[in-house]
């Protein structure tokens, strides 16, 4: 059996890490198992549900469809990196204020998709918010509150 | 269980060396199809011993205008096809098709080269690329060849790519004046849907309102996307003022069945494909009439 270990250096939530990863190890596995960043969830494992969404070099991506061996030199932002100095990101606070969380399983992915949207487009229309979330499924179907929460942050953005 | 050695490359030359030196190499680009198949241990995956990651080769990420062609690097993502002014301006059909693929996350990772080489019967970029007469440049350590995309595809998930070759460029000739394009798709839902049926239409309308050089390429209608010459000829020479769209719908349905035979999905696909070509023609006719005024 040919399995090699690959040494990869990349940045996670502002900190540089150097890890040995397996040839089949997905970014999702590395985050959850090697780095104990379990906020990123495994849902469908085939890129359809969005639960594993993280921001890679500024873009929302499915961490289940990326091998960690591919991302040397890149910058990853996970749900754990949204909070800064004990202060929640405005999006996180808005999700609480607007009751945009039911079971919570989709929430980290939703927040990362929303964050990626606001990085590039601080004042999105409702339609643009819906498009940004089209790859994130919420089986509790709480979409309306999620969209409203994101809209409220976009409105308050300077 | 699938197991393999991971290889990575930051230069085309290095990747070609690997392909020359090793056998049973699977190339990894955006990973949105391949990593699903690896995760599911799909029987569609051929056996491979090495996985060659090309996703970080900067030389394969360009979009440039060279003489009368737009040249696209295979690692250009669907996201870039949507955003790039050179694509939006010259081939809006390609941007529209890219917009219908997967979700934001998938469009940020999936690549045009992957969509071509994976050669899914439902690939959303293949019908517009064939209708635009795209060519693919295949490079190996020893040689380089150019094939029309239509000839490059040989069957569902099958292409003429040799084991030591890498797709290094996609070339699309610019359309002249008077050309109109449209892309239609039916999926189970808007986001993340695999096309149940799609259709690319490219045609030229002269100053008298007559169709010329029509190209009709449906996807998911045949084992792999291909031109529909009978339908194309039936549109050529007709006028935007009196073309019988019902008749064209019947012709495209018949042409599809002549390729596939009657299958379980035929009763659905016959009226659906007729509707797609009617919608595409209606849209183009409306646009042409607006331009006339």
Features:
heterodimer; A: 158 residues; alpha+beta; Ubiquitin-like (UB roll); DNA polymerase, domain 1; 2 domains; 5-stranded mixed β-sheet; 5 helices; 5 strands; B: 293 residues; Uridine Diphospho-n-acetylenolpyruvylglucosamine Reductase, domain 2; Uridine Diphospho-n-acetylenolpyruvylglucosamine Reductase, domain 3; Enolase-like, domain 1; 3 domains; 5-stranded antiparallel β-sheet; 3-stranded parallel β-sheet; 12 helices; globular
What does this structure look like?
The complex is a heterodimer of chains A (158) and B (293). With 158 residues, chain A is an alpha+beta fold. Chain A is built from 5 helices and 5 strands. A 5-stranded mixed β-sheet of chain A has the order 2-1-5-3-4, sandwiched between helices. In chain A, a hairpin with a 2-residue loop joins strand 1 and strand 2 (15-22). In chain A, 47% of the residues are buried. The mean pLDDT of chain A is 95. Chain B has 293 residues and is of the alpha+beta class. Chain B has 3 domains: 5-53, 2-Layer Sandwich (Uridine Diphospho-n-acetylenolpyruvylglucosamine Reductase, domain 2); 59-173, Uridine Diphospho-n-acetylenolpyruvylglucosamine Reductase, domain 3 (2-Layer Sandwich); 179-292, CO dehydrogenase flavoprotein, C-terminal domain (Enolase-like, domain 1), CATH 3.30.390. Chain B has a 5-stranded antiparallel β-sheet with strand order 4-5-10-6-7. In chain B, strands 1-3-2 form a 3-stranded parallel β-sheet, covered by helices on one side. The longest helix of chain B is centred in the last third of the chain and has 27 residues, at 266-292. Chain A binds chain B through residues 1-4, 6, 23-24, 26, 45-48, 50, 53, 59-62, 64-67, 69-70, 72-73, 113, 116, 131-132, 134-136, and chain B through 2-6, 8, 28, 31-32, 35-36, 38-40, 49-51, 53, 55-56, 79, 102-106, 108-109, 190-192.
């Amino acid at each position: 059996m040919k399995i090699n270990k690959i040494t990869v250096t990349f940045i996670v939530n502002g900190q540089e890490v150097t890890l040995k990863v397996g040839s089949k190890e997905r970014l999702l596995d590395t985050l959850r198992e090697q780095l104990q960043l379990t906020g990123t969830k495994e849902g469908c494992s085939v890129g359809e549900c969005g639960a594993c969404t993280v921001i890679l070099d500024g873009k929302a991506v499915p961490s289940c469809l990326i091998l960690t061996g591919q991302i040397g030199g890149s910058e990853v932002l996970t749900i754990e990196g949204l909070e800064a100095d004990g202060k929640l990101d405005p999006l996180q606070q808005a999700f609480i204020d607007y009751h945009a969380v039911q079971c919570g399983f989709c929430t980290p992915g939703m927040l990362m998709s929303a964050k990626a949207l606001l990085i590039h487009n601080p004042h999105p229309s409702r339609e643009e918010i819906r498009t940004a979330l089209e790859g994130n499924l919420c089986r509790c179907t709480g979409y309306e509150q999620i969209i409203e929460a994101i809209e409220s942050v976009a409105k308050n953005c300077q | 269980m699938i197991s393999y050695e991971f290889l990575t490359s930051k230069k085309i030359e290095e990747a070609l060396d690997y392909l020359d030196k090793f056998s049973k190499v699977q190339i990894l680009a955006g990973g949105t199809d391949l990593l699903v198949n690896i995760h599911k241990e799909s029987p569609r995956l051929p056996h491979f011993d090495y996985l060659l990651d090309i996703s970080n080769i900067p030389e394969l990420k360009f979009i440039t205008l060279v003489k009368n062609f737009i040249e696209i690097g295979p690692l250009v993502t669907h996201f870039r096809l949507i955003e790039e002014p050179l694509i939006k301006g010259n081939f809006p059909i390609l941007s529209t098709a890219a917009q219908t693929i997967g979700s934001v996350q998938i469009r940020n990772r999936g690549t045009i080269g992957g969509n071509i080489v994976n050669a899914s019967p439902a690939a959303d970029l293949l019908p517009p690329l064939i209708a635009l007469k795209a060519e693919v440049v295949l490079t190996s350590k020893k040689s380089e060849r150019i094939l029309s995309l239509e000839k490059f595809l040989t069957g569902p998930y099958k292409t003429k790519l040799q084991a030591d070759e890498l797709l290094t460029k996609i070339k699309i000739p610019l359309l002249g004046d008077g050309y109109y394009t449209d892309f239609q798709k039916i999926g189970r839902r808007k986001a993340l849907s695999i096309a149940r049926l799609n259709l690319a239409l490219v045609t030229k309308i002269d100053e008298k309102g007559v169709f010329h050089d029509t190209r009709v390429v449906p996807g998911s209608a045949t084992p792999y996307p291909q031109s529909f010459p009978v339908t194309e000829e039936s549109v050529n020479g007709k006028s935007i003022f009196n073309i019988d769209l019902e008749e064209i719908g019947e012709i495209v349905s018949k042409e599809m069945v002549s390729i596939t035979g009657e299958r379980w999905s035929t009763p659905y696909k016959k009226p659906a494909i007729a509707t797609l070509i009617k919608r595409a023609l209606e849209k183009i006719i409306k646009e042409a009439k607006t331009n006339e005024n």
